[in-house]
Automatic annotation (TrEMBL):
Location of the Cupin type-2 domain: 20-74
Domain of life: Bacteria
Name assigned to this protein: Cupin type-2 domain-containing protein
SUPFAM superfamilies assigned: RmlC-like cupins
A Pfam match: Cupin_2
Length: 88
């Protein structure tokens, strides 16, 4: 998926304006939850989403969705990661 396709899809499905988030190399956030669902697009690097179901790695051009109130931790690969995240 391209960034333009992500933007068209997010608008069509009613997601909010995306926020650009940069993760430093090999970083990992503490476990947390959000009160809104998240639609994520990976711009660069490797982005890993850790949930109770396991860890899933996403590469540039890939997307993922995370329901609201799901405990998770975000992780970046050795070169870091940049994502766009839209919520609703």
């Amino acid at each position: 998926m391209s960034p333009d396709e992500f933007d068209r899809l997010r608008r069509a499905e009613g997601w909010g304006e995306p926020r650009r988030v940069r993760f430093e190399a090999s970083s990992r956030s503490p476990p947390h939850v959000h009160d809104q669902a998240s639609f994520v697009y990976v711009l660069d690097g490797a982005f890993v989403l850790n949930t109770s179901d396991g860890a899933t790695r996403y590469r540039p051009g890939e997307t993922c969705m995370l329901d609201a109130h799901v405990e998770h931790a975000e992780e970046a690969g050795p070169d870091g990661a940049t994502i766009l995240v839209a919520r609703k």
